[in-house]
Amino acid sequence: MKLITGIITELFTETVKKIDPEFSDWDKLFIQSASNEKFGDYQTNFAMTVAKVFRKAPRQIAEDLIDNFPENDVVEKLEIAGPGFINIFVDKKFISKTLANISLEKWSFDHVNTKGDVVIDYSSPNIAKPMHAGHLRTTIIGDSIKRIMSYVGYRVIADNHLGDWGTQFGKLIIGYRNWLDKDAFAKDPINELERIYIKFGEETEDNPQLNDEARAELGKLQNGDPENNKLWELFSDITKKECKRIYSRLGIEFDTYYGESFYHPMMPEIVKVLEEKGIAVVDDEALVVFFDEEENLHPCIIRKKDGSFLYSTSDLATVQFKKENYDLNKAVYVTDDRQISHFKQVFRISEKLGWDTNFAHVTFGIMSFNGQILSTRAGNTIKLDELLDEAQKRAYTIVNEKNPDLPEDEKRNIGRVVGIGALKYSDLSQNRTSNIDFSWNKALSFEGNTAPYLQYSYARVCSIFRKAEKNNITIEENSEILLETEIEKQLAMSVIKFPEIVEKAAESYKPNLLADHIFDLAQKFSSFYNATPILKSEDKLVQSRLKLSKTVAETIKQGLDLLGIEVVERM
User: Fold this and answer.
1) pLDDT of 123-137, one tens digit each?
2) Which CATH number fits domain 4-90: 3.10.20.340, 3.30.1360.70, 3.30.420.40, 2.40.50.150?
3) What is the spatial distance between Cα 109 and Cα 112, in angstroms, rounded to a whole number?
4) What is the pLDDT, as a whole number, of residue 376?
């Protein structure tokens, strides 16, 4: 099923060709949602953008377009506004017909180039360390982008680039052999690994020679020492298992877990090619890539004096691997905005190597909690597991207060769905580039643009159907959707515009666009629910309004699912 904007664009294209068969600058023809529903469902400023081409006043061009617009069953009327805007009103019967088909046909995104693979790199925790609140934004933003792009039709591969190689392993090996508490390790291995890692740092204050010993153990690991390699595999397996447990709580899955260790054998060849092509040169015994002054990029070290590699080398290896192993459409990286310079360097070096890749660096700001920025160095981090526990606990308390008579297992499940949903939505509903200050009171509120409000909106529609069932009212699938009131039409149009918003969210990597639309839809439904009788209407209107309510509920559920948020049928 074609998007409405696509159908209207085709009608305007036909009209323009009739007026000027030689016209070719089609990028100027853009249909967008009307800024105010009083002035139509869509609008276009096409007449204003082509005034010089047609050598006419914009209003005259708009009049010509309206006069030559073909007969159709989609557009009810066109109106000129201001200096040459064209307001577009969609026909109610077409809206009704489209709503009726939503459950039968999928939306078509054939106009989007979805050929090939989109590899999204996000989350990226470090081995032998518990995930903390700082991992939350990259994880849930990356997962939502994956879901949104999959909906549009991309084949998406979710990759978790684990920090599973480097100097910390020499330290961990020393700590494991000297200070491991076996009982604590058996009970909670990931936190015991973190403890011995911190213990190593403390011990080096009195015994700095430990650093030399750690480097020696790392060297043995890198040279294939069986015993050290066995420990490295143990640390890695423990961390992956723990991360997957937390991802399961968040409803998140990855397709691949290619960490730094996976790419390490590829790095010498990358360095060799960079050197042979003269892209990287020796500077003060290190191998460095320099950029032209106008590129405004700092020199990028590819190999240090001691022969070790850096993140830039590892990320170049990932680019090469993706190019060779995927039919790559896009390579997307979801990280905080402190890594902007790093990825600019990596992408530019890739260009110098002749790697024609469509890169996207999706950045986000800092998340603070009640005004406090969390920092590992400051020792005030919140473990992600504990944050999820707190979310569920607080949500359960609210559910228990509002609906104490529900079965206990149902209250627990609602607390889980609402708590984790609130945590996710408080982030995803914001522009990802902004810094966010998280507040439990705001996130768990049942008023305003929050997950609990949207989840409640869905549950309220479900309650209508439970009441209908008690009254022996069932939806007749062939019944017509009658848009008798203005709010019904606005509600229906909001449902129909849903795939257009998803496409925009995919193009811009901004889940908040989708969140805004779902919130607007829920608000419209609230107005409809309060102003319009549903079950007490006459028979045809009961059927119509139940079907309309059903499409609203399904759209809210679908939208929240694309944000990685669950719903429940009663709260």
Assistant:
1) 999 999 899 988 999
2) 3.30.1360.70
3) 6
4) 47
